[in-house]
Amino acid sequence: MSVNVLYKTSAKATGGRDGHAATLDGALDVKLTTPKELGGAGGAGNNPEQLFAAGYAACFIGAMKFVGSQGGPKVPADVAVTSTVGIGPRSAGGFGLDVELAVSLPGLPRAEAEALVEKAHQVCPYSNATRGNIDVRTVIV
Q1: What's the mean pLDDT when you consider all of the chain?
Q2: What's the pTM value of the predicted model, to 2 decimals?
Q3: What is the spatial order of strands in the sheet that 20-23 belongs to?
Q4: CB atoms within 10 A of CB 62
Q5: Which of 20, 47, 71, 100 is most deeply buried (CB count within 10 A of its CB)?
Q6: 24: left (phi > 0), else alpha (psi -120 to 50), else beta?
Q7: 76-85 pLDDT, tens per residue?
Q8: Would the pLDDT of 1 be above 90?
Q9: Which long-range contacts (CB under 8 A, 24 or more apart) does 112-116 make?
Q10: Can you tell me whether residue 139 is helix, strand or coil?
Q11: Mean pLDDT of 42-59
Q12: How far apart, in whole angstroms, are the C-alpha atoms of residue 123 and residue 67?
């Protein structure tokens, strides 16, 4: 499947989970640290799972707004998505991720919220990239 690329960005990481990552344009610059739960020191810094969680949450809101603009329900201004990303060993070997998207759509009737979230899950690029590879659950809160 081809993609008509409209935007690209590049980031460079050094030092792995206890290193540094930055976009080449300088807009994002983070110190990386491994969480204690994964054998690291923890402390100040971020880890790839946190960055993925933040990106997925923001992108999912964008997908809901896109669906709303295509005739779906209007997305409330105070919409929020909490993305929880877990990491751990897979039964088949290696490591895997697990994601839950908790979606808050204040004032939107539950049936409309559920339909909006389902449609957004079909168009969101993060959802499309993870489908079939990562267990992603959506929950209306």
Answers
A1: 96
A2: 0.95
A3: 11-14, 20-23, 29-31
A4: 16
A5: 47
A6: alpha
A7: 999 999 999 9
A8: no
A9: 112/73, 113/73, 113/140, 114/140, 115/72, 115/73, 116/64, 116/67, 116/68, 116/72, 116/73, 116/75
A10: strand
A11: 96
A12: 8
| Helix (H/G/I), strand (E/B), else coil: 65 | helix
Tokens of 65: 């707004």
Residue keyed to tokens 């992603």: 136
- Nearest CA-CA partner of 18 in 6, 2, 34, 35: 34
Reported as type and span, the H/E element at residue 130 is helix 125-130
- Report whether 124 contacts 101 (CB < 8 A): no
Residue pair 84/100 in contact by the 8 Å Cβ criterion: yes
Report residue 88: phi and psi, to 5°: -175, 175
**Residue 71 buriedness (CB in 10 A; 0-12 / 13-18 / 19+):** exposed
Contact of 57 with 117, CB cutoff 8 Å: no
